[in-house]
Amino acid sequence: MVQVEGRVALIGHPVGHSLSPVMHNRAFERLGLAWRYSAFDVQPKDLPDAMRGLRALGFRGWNITVPHKEAACRLVDELSDEAAEIGAVNTVLVQEGRLTGYNTDGWGYVEALHAETGLTVEGKVSVVVGAGGAARGIAHALVREGALVRVVARRPAQAERLADEFSRLGPGRIQAGGWDKLQVWLREADLCVNTTPVGMSPDTGAMPFDPGWTREGCVVSDIVYNPRETLLLKRARELGRSTCDGVGMFVFQGAAAFRIWTGLAAPVADMRAVVEEGLDDGAVKGGSDI
């Protein structure tokens, strides 16, 4: 039976820029559901209290964004198999007072990549720039899809820890390196994805790396969705590279969370339309909340 009334939310720091409430509330309205999505700015030290509070207030669930995705793993009662493997949570479901953590980032990214570029990653060299919560979900999904994944981070130990944890998914399927590896690995990549906030509004003049380091035929991807075309993607497009922006991932990961909470297929087209309207109208004053 469909639950026709419910409350869900986003918790992170900061969240004032987020289009998640607009996107989900449009979806609820489209399906005639009396649900409401809110956003709460929660400092890291307050995360345990915030999650206890939302459960006590009867929320059906919530999304988790930066910087809480990894910490949330330790605050739920159980994890989905995928979230346990990834080590990060971006969606929580409350059932009979128990919290279950899920991760929809990787699925959302791969769905968007397929929809927007047609790229099949099996057997392809994929460079993931960054090693935070979103990177973990994306790297996990790419390895699962059969890609050869190389993770690069300014803190090599963080990338190495991620690669070590995911090595059980397939011997030789994932490698890690520091920034000194980036230019060499990009020359061999079929896909590169920026999972860092570099280039996100308001710092739109920055790039995480030079897309000129990529080879012809490489797909350049950025999970930042504000601006829709980051400077990285603009420069890559000018070089003739195929590009994939962060809007698709944002919408698809949200659609997966919507199904987890409601049991219903999300109206993806409506969700994407309202996100694009918000970006085109300049409604987002800060960055993305992937």
Automatic annotation (TrEMBL):
Shikimate binds at S18, L19, S20, T65, N90, D105, Y225, Q253. It is an enzyme of class 1 (oxidoreductase). Pathway: Metabolic intermediate biosynthesis; chorismate biosynthesis; chorismate from D-erythrose 4-phosphate and phosphoenolpyruvate: step 4/7. It comes from the Bacteria. Residues 10-92 form the Shikimate dehydrogenase substrate binding N-terminal domain. Keywords: Amino-acid biosynthesis, Aromatic amino acid biosynthesis, NADP, Oxidoreductase. It catalyses: shikimate + NADP(+) = 3-dehydroshikimate + NADPH + H(+). Coiled coil: none annotated. NADP(+) binds at D81, G130, A131, G132, G133, A134, I223, G246. Its EC number is 1.1.1.25. One of its GO terms (molecular function) is NADP binding. One of its GO terms (biological process) is amino acid biosynthetic process. PANTHER family: BIFUNCTIONAL 3-DEHYDROQUINATE DEHYDRATASE_SHIKIMATE DEHYDROGENASE, CHLOROPLASTIC, SHIKIMATE DEHYDROGENASE. Belongs to the shikimate dehydrogenase family. Involved in the biosynthesis of the chorismate, which leads to the biosynthesis of aromatic amino acids. Catalyzes the reversible NADPH linked reduction of 3-dehydroshikimate (DHSA) to yield shikimate (SA). Homodimer. This is Shikimate dehydrogenase (NADP(+)). It comes from Kyrpidia tusciae (strain DSM 2912 / NBRC 15312 / T2) (Bacillus tusciae). The gene is aroE.
